[in-house]
Design a protein that fits this description.
By secondary structure, the protein is of the alpha+beta class. It folds into two domains: 120 residues, Beta Polymerase, domain 2; 100 residues. The protein is 51% helix and 16% strand. The strands form two sheets. Strands 1-2-5-4-3 form a five-stranded mixed beta sheet. A two-stranded antiparallel ribbon has the order 6-7. The protein is globular and about 60 Å long.
Length: 220
């Protein structure tokens, strides 16, 4: 993603959080781990999540957001809306449409206040990404988890703990299968993120090595 596009996206996030912060919303998803310096993966999706305690205010928060963005010269289309989820297509004054998802989700910690506004605490942001890898295993989930591990900020043992906190049915055998699933990713699936063939192969090797390490420790 060109820097100007990323800046446009961050401006939209900051604008949205101006009106959503008081309703308990925080930046989530890959945007959150990017704000924590864990990845630079480009994305057109923006996730803004609040908590169950704010559920009764959710519909009104969506209305307020649409009004706020429109007043700031964004073109907004509500693609889907329910009592706990909304998907907006938001077009900046100069730029392509961006998808904004608003939802209710569990979090363990109070969001942190960064320059862009409220952002999920690092543990929640990373834990959610591990949960995404475990539950759906999208190619982008592998890229994000690999980027997180590459920072060396959080140990592999802690990553698994964060996942276990979010999934009471966590199964280590299934998790290692998910890790080895990185080998099913094709270059065409990740080329849009700027990943080369050699980078993909290195990512796949790292996931296989992680799975092997887990299995070896289980068998000791």
């Amino acid at each position: 993603m060109a820097r100007s596009v990323q800046q446009t996206q961050r401006q939209l996030i900051a604008c949205a959080l101006e009106v959503l912060a008081d309703e308990g919303f925080a930046l989530a998803g890959s945007g959150a781990i990017r704000e924590h310096g864990m990845t630079q993966r480009p994305t057109n999706d923006i996730d803004l999540f609040t908590v169950m305690q704010a559920a009764t205010r959710f519909p009104n928060a969506v209305v307020n957001l649409v009004e706020h963005l429109t007043a700031n010269n964004y073109d907004v289309t509500v693609e889907r809306a329910s009592s706990s989820f909304a998907q907006l297509s938001v077009t900046p004054p100069h730029g392509a449409p961006l998808s904004v998802d608003l939802a209710i989700d569990w979090r363990a910690h109070t969001p942190v206040r960064l320059g862009i506004g409220p952002v999920l605490d690092l543990a929640d942001a990373v834990g959610n990404k591990l949960s995404a890898l475990y539950s759906r295993s999208y190619p982008r989930d592998y890229l994000d988890v690999d980027a997180i591990r590459s920072t060396g900020t959080i140990s592999d043992a802690r990553l698994i703990e964060l996942l276990q906190e979010r999934d009471a049915g966590f199964d280590v055998g299934f998790f290692t299968e998910c890790l080895r699933g990185a080998h099913s990713i094709s270059l065409t699936q990740v080329a849009a993120y700027g990943i080369t063939a050699s980078q993909l192969h290195a990512i796949q090797r790292r996931f296989s090595s992680w799975a092997d390490d887990i299995d070896n420790k289980r068998n000791d």
